[in-house]
Specification:
Elements: H1 5-10, H2 24-47, H3 70-76, E1 81-86, H4 91-102, E2 110-113, E3 133-141, E4 145-146, H5 151-159, E5 168-175, H6 184-195, E6 199-200, E7 205-208, H7 213-232, E8 246-249, E9 283-292, E10 301-307, E11 320-323, H8 329-338, E12 346-351, E13 366-367, H9 368-375, H10 384-390, H11 397-406, H12 411-423, H13 428-434, H14 442-448, E14 455-458, E15 469-475, E16 478-480, E17 486-488, H15 490-495, E18 507-513, E19 527-530, H16 537-551, E20 559-565, H17 568-571, H18 575-583, E21 589-594, H19 604-610, H20 612-620, E22 624-630, H21 631-649, H22 654-666, E23 670-675
Parallel strand pairs: 1-2, 1-3, 3-5, 5-6, 5-7, 19-20, 19-22, 20-21, 22-23
Antiparallel strand pairs: 3-4, 8-12, 9-10, 9-18, 10-15, 11-14, 11-18, 12-13, 16-17
Length: about 675
Amino acid sequence: MIATGASAETGTEHVSDQEPFLGTLDIIFLVAVTAAAVYWFLLRRKKQEPPQVKKLSVLPASLRTVDPSFVNKMKNSNRNVVVFYGSQTGTAEEFAGRLSKDATRYGMKGLAVDPEECDMEDMTRLTELENPLAIFCMATYGEGDPTDNAQEFYDWLQAGDASLEGLNYAVFALGNKTYEHYNDMGKYVDKRLAELGATRVFELGQGDDDANIEEDFVTWREKFWPAVCEHFGIEATGEDISIRQFSLEIPEDLPKEKTFSGESARLGSFKKQKPPFDSKNPYLAPVAINRELHKGGGRSCMHIEIDITGSRLRYEAGDHVAVFPINDPNQVQAIGERLEADLDVVFSLNNVDEEASKKHPFPCPCTYRTALAHYLDINHVPRTHILKELSDYTQDPKEKEFLVTLTSPTPEGKALYSDWILKDHRDILTVLRDLPSLKPPIDHVCELLPRLQARYYSISSSPKLYPNSIHITAVVVEWETRLGRTVKGVATNWLALKHPTNGIKPTVPVYVRKSQFRLPFKPTVPVIMVGPGTGLAPFRGFIQERYSVKKEGKPLGDTVLYFGCRKKADDYLYEDELLDYLNDGTLSKIHTAFSRDQAEKVYVQHLMRQNKQEIWQILENGGHIYVCGDARNMARDVHKVLVEVVIECGERSEEKAEEYVKKLSTKGRYSADVWS
């Protein structure tokens, strides 16, 4: 009989009264099973060794699992100062490292930590340490947003209700005053930590990258540490001595495939490309097209199309593409010659702090040439702490005294740094040339210089028309200092050389960074786009997006573009293309301002003032307004014009008009993608 239901689960059978309890086959089967059991228990088990408890073995440090708890790391190394950084371009990370090193001057030990690499819930455990101090160097990105590496920390602060009572803290905010949401992230962290019960040791510091963020930081730092001493009842333990954070290692007979050659993180990632592609694993995209957009005027603006076929990279109109540039090889060679160094020597810089999460300042091992070309920002003006450490290698007493004065936090030192370094835009090579007796070892220079960062460009295409390519619109940056030295933009001058030749397409490392800069979901919603110069880039993608909708026969809302440039004949970007969109009805109107085609300069904001009623009508009909370009002047002026529009056409007071415009921004109807 066949067992069913619960009988099958328990292994029993229902049997008929007429059948014998055990049949012949049943008896044979039972005998076989019994014999097998006897063999297993009496014979086979005797051959096995008795079970043993596995001994606990300690793995070498290189093989141990990394402890994600920064509090445990601090306990293990007797530290009580942790410095978190939210950094998009590396400045906040650099400041965090300097503050961490500062702690040794006061008998404390610091640890610089990337919040993305640890569990921020552990902040509640900091009170397990004696006199815990948490310092936050927080940059603001975009429209008052946290940086990519601080996003999870920001989410935790917003959602969490953890008690931070007993924790001492201070915040230094990094931002740019030309932006509306100046230092919003730092201000929020400072306020939120206090709400969660933490004790503010010193006032919020604010650095303005549009002015002199180095001076802002140094000024705050010089007042911050005395406040820490007073709070904890401690004193400085000694002089401000420079201590190297990384030790030099020259590996012997290392195979070439074991050395980095420009990869962001994974060794060999440029040779064996594996998605997904991101900031630590960029895609080597072939450059399919690189053509000139300007027709005259002496300047250059590139239209570049990079091929993303098969990469699985996805983008939307309004997103940014990140490009990892390479420094000018002639400049790299000049630094090597000035330092009398063999640039093809393979080296590694290893962190002397075993608890530090950052084992190397950049991918190691590599050659000095690779480090200076791919990993280090040799064009950035050196900050005071770099010059201060390098001053120890100055042989001429006068030059040493000059550097010591220039790097001091005194009014004289700040003025000298501003004049000699910032205003003349002296990079590391220029400093070395202007101070002949300064002869630092190349490995220390590599340790001190900041990382070369990716450059972000507003994508000037739509995947609706170009699913397999990303377009970039960029002006080649080149200018002269007041001393007559030519300064070239690293990325744009490097990209300018990337021309397909004889069917061979050069490659550039890229990835896509998502943005909130988006068209309304409904194509019937009217939009105003204000984009002079290369500020047109994202709007070219927006226009292509609406063109694809129109091709499908769907209705479009008003699509109005304000574009400006110097001269119509020289730098009217994508002129024919825009006129085609105007003629086919994709664009409702184009308002153009050619600033130098007449005696009195005319800009897009002037044209907006002439069209106040049109702008007001679109806004009142639920329209969106977008601004892209210069933050310092244009974006501010556009904001003022919007307020004027609401005052005059909406018949509101200035205060109410400001509220109206702010509400537009809050609701996502007024968006800006600007730079300074």
